[in-house]
Specification:
Blueprint: H1 4-20, H2 25-46, E1 52-59, E2 64-70, H3 73-77, H4 82-94, E3 102-108, H5 116-128, H6 133-146, E4 151-158, E5 166-173, H7 182-185, E6 186-194, E7 199-207
Parallel strand pairs: 2-3
Antiparallel strand pairs: 1-2, 4-5, 4-7, 6-7
Helix pairs in contact: 5-6
Length: 249
């Protein structure tokens, strides 16, 4: 048998040759989805206290760019960029990227009140800090609506006060649940809180408002939105034609 070092090298070569071969589109989409899911899980656990709100992967011919969205970007970067370099090294080693072929960036969330992930994390830390459930949920609900959301819903389920588990729903504004606009207008996040009496589940749904600029909401208007145009100014018509007998001179 070959020594461990040589066997590991040969295994790595086989992996590289496999990567070099052309894979089918179906396998590529599955591989991309698995990569995104694992990366998102890693960053969620690592940056939950820094207001982590999602990740975007951009693949260019030169390198792969990973953009981390968070409410506190300075904490994500760390002192003199130390933390972002550590995360880059972890991602590079875990997913077998070449040296310098992957870059991590931190981007600040424009409006954290309209980000379901940020609000779910906020509610999670409130419940961990022994804040009463109703007060915490109503506080989050009010903050979301003040930031310009069209509607929102917060569901907390589990052993809230007694031993019997139950679910509490808090709603405000207008919310849609079906159809195509759900993909654009609804932002959803689910989180779990590990308390002494058991696990609580948190679900936050935010309905964004239509924004033609696309900053605080989708550009496409709702399909059932009715626009009433202002009536045009009536043009002065020529004098009415004379009907009847001609006037006698």
């Amino acid at each position: 048998r070959l020594p461990f070092f040589f066997s590991s090298v040969s295994t790595q070569r086989r992996q590289l040759t496999k990567m070099a071969t052309v894979i089918s589109k179906k396998r590529k989409f599955v591989a991309d989805g698995v990569f995104y899911a694992e990366l998102n899980e890693l960053l969620t656990r690592e940056l939950s206290e820094d207001g982590y709100s999602g990740v975007e992967v951009r693949v260019t011919p030169m390198r792969t760019e990973i953009i981390i969205r968070a409410t506190r970007t300075q904490s994500v970067l760390g002192e003199k960029g130390r933390r972002i370099r550590e995360l880059t090294s972890v991602v590079q080693k875990r997913f077998n990227f070449k040296e310098g072929s992957v870059e991590l960036y931190a981007e600040k969330v424009a409006n954290r009140g309209l980000c379901a992930v940020a609000q779910a994390e906020s509610l999670r830390y409130k419940l961990l800090g022994a804040v009463p459930v109703r007060r915490a949920c109503y506080g989050v609900l009010r903050f979301i609506m003040e930031q310009g959301a069209k509607g929102c819903e917060v569901i907390v389920s589990g052993k809230l006060r007694a031993q019997r588990a139950k679910a509490m729903k808090f709603r405000d504004g207008y919310m849609i649940s079906s159809g195509g606009p759900v993909k654009e207008y609804i932002d959803t996040a689910v989180r779990h809180v590990l308390l002494r009496q058991g696990v609580l589940g948190i679900k936050v749904k935010i309905m964004l408002d239509w924004d033609p600029s696309g900053k605080n909401g989708p550009k496409t208007p709702m399909p059932d939105a009715v626009k009433v145009n202002q009536p045009k100014e009536e043009e002065e018509l020529a004098g009415k034609p004379f009907v009847g007998k001609e006037p006698t001179m």
